[in-house]
Write a structure and sequence with these properties.
Blueprint lengths: L1 E2 L2 E2 L2 E3 L13 E5 L6 E10 L6 E6 L2 E7 L11 H4 L3 E7 L7 E8 L3 E10 L2 H6 L6 H24 L4 H31 L15 H7 L3 E2 L3 E2 L19 E6 L2 H4 L9 H9 L2 E4 L7 H15 L3 E6 L4 H4 L4 H4 L11 E5 L2 E5 L15 H7 L4 H9 L14 H10 L13 H4 L6 H19 L2 E6 L3 H10 L4 H13 L3 E3 H6 L5 H6 L1 E2 L1 E2 L1 H17 L7
Parallel strand pairs: 13-14, 13-15, 15-18, 18-19
Antiparallel strand pairs: 1-2, 3-10, 4-9, 5-8, 5-10, 6-7, 6-9, 11-12, 16-17, 20-21
Length: about 550
């Protein structure tokens, strides 16, 4: 990231580095927050014998000194793959106007800075900032209880003549001691289980400069982002070229077929079955809205007989989203995207709020995020319904969403890109976003028919959906809702969940169909089911 007059990632020389000549030994960063902040310095490597001491200055005054760890002393080409990385956290006081932070190397040799991130200090941290987290609170809670137990006998002797007051005193003291102990236990519990639950933290939305630079390569104004395949039409590479094309597919990573090779996608297996080209335009992270826009861009290049708009039920959560981090803060693809809304019963496109690659850095600006968040279901939802991670930790147990995640996830799954905000927890399938998703179906079918192409809505399987179908012998509520809507409208719909799961004899079979995304075996089953569907629909001639 560019920090004032400094560029990160970069090598910061130390006083011992005569080779650096006049190179600056200080970087400057503008702090966007007027209140207390937390500064996190991430490094890739450092000198193997003389790592530097770093001073952190706020508006010119030194507020902290950090002795960095010895690294491996590797050349820059090896920092990311073999360097010894480290992370240092510094708490900064409220800085008022100016708000310039400097990081200065005062002793030793060089260090390779990976990123410098600033986030606002939670209010609770202002209270506890001078006490090490978690263990210190636990010790404090135990100390308070011990003090109470010491005072109680003394106070009891003094209150012998007032039994009512004595009883009240003992009750209050024990209640406070129990509360302090419970708070300490809750702090420890959530410290070790934080990644298994969802919490509201605005700072997690901020995009750092290094990531912004990396993402700029795949930026796309109309779609949000795009793959960088050097193929004739921008599709995923096809290992075999057939004389004619038959189908083009559009969707997310389950359409793209992440985690398998080009010759192991369901499109490749289906193409072999058809002896015709099946073009794979799936893109990781896409919502059904982006898949529809990709269809409008790419289908005219290939002009296939069939076009498939593919989705998994989770994709409705992306349709409701304009910035990936609002939905899943830990995502590696932290890009903004266009989205549709329903206005006066009609589908309306809200363009990508990031108008060019140079504006990606705006995703690190809190004011910009607040502005675009007004059109994002998850930005609004998270503020309203999710607990804040911090003191008092006991209040988290009073939050409805926490207990829903305990019930549905059973505490045995980390929140990740596929269960970022589990749709069945958020009731999103009973929200107005369903109208938007189905409006996209309507637009896709209408456009496809106008172009002379046969449209198919394809519901692809995830492991959760396949397990549900195998156990219940029917689709989940979202799958049933999609197929019912398509049936009512007379749309062609391929149920890939049923097509895969009906082959399973036991849980081990289901497990073999997935490696996160579908495995090569899982993709073969999807391809075979899709072929049978196309044959039964009269779209292919049995051969």
């Amino acid at each position: 990231m560019r920090a004032g007059d400094s560029l990160i990632p970069a090598q910061l020389p130390g006083p011992l580095d005569l080779w650096a000549g006049g190179a600056p030994k200080t970087i400057h960063i503008e702090n966007p927050y007027p209140g207390g902040t937390i500064l996190t310095i991430s490094t890739l490597d450092s000198h193997e014998a003389a790592p530097p001491m770093l001073d952190v200055l706020a508006n010119g005054a030194t507020v902290a000194s950090v002795q960095t760890e010895k690294g491996r002393g590797l050349p820059d080409s090896l920092w990311e793959s073999e360097g010894k990385s480290a992370e240092y956290t510094v708490e900064l006081p409220a800085m008022g106007s100016g708000r310039v932070i400097a990081i200065r190397s005062v002793t030793g040799s060089w260090i390779a800075l990976d990123s410098v991130n600033i986030r606002p200090m939670p209010e609770a941290w202002e209270v506890w900032r001078h006490i090490p987290q978690y263990w210190a609170k636990w010790i404090l809670a135990v100390s308070l209880m011990a003090l109470a137990l010491y005072i109680l006998p003394v106070a009891g002797r003094e209150l012998q003549k007032s039994p009512i007051i004595k009883k009240a005193f003992f009750g209050v003291a024990m209640a406070l001691s129990t509360l302090a102990l419970a708070e300490g236990m809750a702090a420890i519990f959530f410290h070790y289980t934080k990644d298994r639950f969802s919490f509201y933290d605005f700072s997690s939305y901020l995009l750092d400069g290094k990531t912004a630079t990396r993402l700029a390569k795949s930026y796309d104004r109309q779609l949000g982002w795009r793959p960088l395949y050097q193929t004739p039409f921008g599709e995923r590479p096809r290992p075999v070229e057939y004389p004619t094309g038959f189908m083009a597919t559009f969707g997310d990573s389950f359409t793209h077929c992440d985690q398998v090779d080009d010759d192991e996608t369901w499109e490749t297996y289906l193409a072999a079955r058809l002896n015709k080209n099946v073009y794979n335009f799936g893109v990781g992270g896409y919502g059904t809205d982006q898949a529809y826009l990709a269809f409008k861009r790419h289908w005219p290049k290939v002009k296939t007989k069939v076009a498939a708009l593919c989705l998994v039920p989770e994709n409705i959560s992306r349709v409701a989203n304009v910035y990936r981090k609002f939905y899943y803060p830990a995502t590696k693809g932290a890009m903004a995207k266009p989205r549709f809304i329903m206005e006066d019963g009609k589908l309306k496109l809200i363009p990508n709020p990031v108008e060019n690659a140079g504006e990606i850095k705006k995703l690190g600006d809190p004011a910009f995020l607040e502005k675009i968040g007004r059109n994002d279901f998850w930005y609004i939802y998270n503020q309203r319904d999710y607990p804040v991670f911090g003191f008092p930790y006991l209040k988290i147990f009073l939050n409805k969403r926490f207990w829903l995640e305990v019930y549905y996830l059973k505490g045995n799954k980390q929140i990740d890109d596929m269960i970022a905000r589990p749709a069945h927890l958020q009731d999103i399938w009973r929200s107005r976003e369903v109208d938007v998703l189905f409006g996209i179906f309507d637009a896709f079918v209408a456009d496809a028919r106008a172009m002379g192409v046969e449209p198919v809505i394809a519901v692809l399987p995830t492991k959760d959906e396949a397990e549900y179908y195998w156990a219940e012998k029917r689709g989940s509520f979202p799958v049933e809702k999609i197929t019912a809507y398509c049936g009512e409208k007379g749309y062609r719909v391929f149920n890939g969940v049923e097509g895969m799961a009906r082959n399973a004899r036991n849980q081990d079979d289901i497990d073999s169909y997935f490696i996160g995304h579908a495995s090569p075996l899982g993709n073969r089953l999807v391809a075979e089911a899709f072929y049978e569907y196309l044959k039964n629909a009269g779209l292919v001639t049995p051969g």
